[in-house]
Structures are given as C-alpha cells and as structure tokens.
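Weekly puzzle thread! Below is a chain. First person to post its structure in token form gets bragging rights.
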Amino acid sequence: MDEHTALMQRALDAARLGPEADPNPRVGCVVIDRDGRVVGTGHHRGAGTAHAEVDALARTGGLARGGTALVTLEPCDHTGRTGPCTRALLDAGVARVRYALADPDVAAAGGAAHLAAAGVDVALEDDPALRAAAEDLNATWLHARRTGRPWVTWKTATTLDGRTAAADGSSRWITGEAARADVHALRARVGAVLVGTGTALADDPALTVRDADGAPAARQPLRVVAGTRALPDDARLLDGGAETLVVASHDPAEVLAALTARGVHHVLLEGGATLAAAFLRAGLVDEVVAYLAPTLLGAGPGAVGDLGITTIGDAVRLETTDVTVLGGDVRITARPVRT
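Winning reply:
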C-alpha cells in the first residue's frame, strides 16, 4: 500500500467512528504538513458538531499551512449549523485537498470548485477501490441524496415455511436470542423503524433498541406508524421510550416523504404483510433482511401480502448479498433485482 492510499484509508477509518444513523454523512479527514507528516486526524460526530475537516484542523497546532487535507467527501461550501469547510481550509492555509467522493447534496456541493478558484490544488481521488470504500461508507445517505427518499430495508422473521406467527396469532419467539439481538443491532444503525397501524394494534411493539440485558440504548431510532387508525393511549409506541411519528397515510411514497423531511436516510420496515406488500408493489424496498428459523408451522400468516403476481415470470427476484448463521437461525440479506 503506497503512502497516499494509507492516508486516505486512515481518513476512511476515522469516518467510520461517526454515527451511521445521523442525518449527516460520516466523514473523515487527515491533514499532513508540507513535509508529509500527519499533524491532524478528525471525523464528524453528528449534526451540529464540527465537520471532519474542522475537527482535524483543530488538532494541527497551526501546522496545516502549506500542507494537504485528505477527505472522504468533498468539503462542504455552505453554512448550516456550522460554517463551510472550504472557509476553514482556506483560513488554515491548506495548499492541497484530495477527496474520495463528490458531494451529491445540492446545498453543500461546490466546495472543490470554490477551493480551486481560491488557488488550492484540488483533485478527486482516482483510485477506484478508495472511491468504492467511500461510497460504501455512506451508502444509504448517498442513496437518499440521489433519489430524494430514504433507503428502505425490509426486515422479516419467519419460520422455514414463511410463517410470521402460528394460526392462533402467537409469534414469540420464532427466532432465537442471537437473531433477536441482531435485530436490535440493525435498528441501532437506522434513522427510523416503521410499522403499520395493523401491527401496532395487534402486537403492541416497543420498537426500541435494547442491549443484551434489556436496557434501552442511549440513542433510539424514530418510531414511525403509518395508517389512519388511532393508537390507544397506553400503546407502547406512545410510552415516551423514543420519539414516535404517526403518518396518517397508507401511501408508501407519502410515508417516505415525511421521513425525508425529518432527515432520515435509512428506514427499517418492520410492519406486517400488508405494509410490506404495499412497499414492494411500489418498488420502494431496497434491501431485505430475512431471519429464518428452522421451524415449521404449516399454517398462519405469511411475511408478505398480495403482490398482484399471477405467474412465476413476474416474481420479485432478489440477489443474495450475505448469508449468516445466528445461533440456530439463518439471516439472509438480499436486494431486489432492478430491471
């Protein structure tokens, strides 16, 4: 690995320390002085905190002048909760900037052009592997900026024959402890968890993130209920354990628009068969995470409702990206094949 690659990899590693579910992207920065020595490393810690470039520059002790900043995302050129990173880089006297990925956010983009106009030597990373790593780092955030809607992960937990509950409605527990713990880890990585009013009324879920001892995590995703039926006052979704948003609509696009307005770029769809079918029929599922228990019921509700499919040629095809054994269960991750 050459020195430049190692330094950009260091910036990527720093970026991974940032919160994945934050409305802002995860960004890392490494600053080297004019002699090539690393004098500052920083990362963004969430909305309202210093951006990665500012965080790294604050650690340089003034040694950034004439040096180089390596950043995982194009420096921003706008004023939000914090000032533009372009201004911070110029004030610090940085002579060169290398960035791994152009910023697709219309409000924040333009930083590279601004720096170049001010005389800074600016270049986009030309290593495909580093660019791919930068894409992967903020995959759901980038998807939201490019499409105008959050990335949707549909989570299911079923028996081997596709049942989400027994014929009498009982469903605790289909999967084992390892799979359930994995679901909590998945929830911790998203901005919102979504169910329909049918699931909310039938199961009274909490939809919170809890640790192995059952204690609530410090950071909770937004809980979202879609539908027009009212929840009872004693519903666990109204218990104050996390913020809950009720979207009085059955239209998946309207629900996602409400989440986009809240800065959510990754939503976990945990609703029942009806809501899952609505999102699938609308083409608004980007990923499926299916937990399969080696159990057979033979009867009971299935994972998804009517998709309007009458022939095998019209089936929703998925491409498997990962298969993992969790205790006695299996987790399959797959993405719809777009035609």
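Puzzle host: Confirmed. Bonus trivia for everyone else. Residues 197 and 230 are 8 Å apart (CA to CA).
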